[in-house]
Request: fold
Amino acid sequence: MAYKISEDCIGCGACAAECPVGAISEADGKYAIDASACLDCGACAGTCPVGAPQAE
Reply:
């Protein structure tokens, strides 16, 4: 199970900075997680101020 970033994303980039494998990228001010690269570690969810990264 990978994580997905919800519409609650505010584009701060905290999740991308915390991802140990660089699975999070930005486009048009919003972030997305590459499910095939995600380790399901939850680091992104733990650092997001609005709880946008969520387990699928």
User: Anything to note?
Assistant: DSSP finds two helices and four strands in the chain. Residues 3-55 form a domain with the Alpha-Beta Plaits fold (CATH 3.30.70.20). The chain has one domain: 3-55.
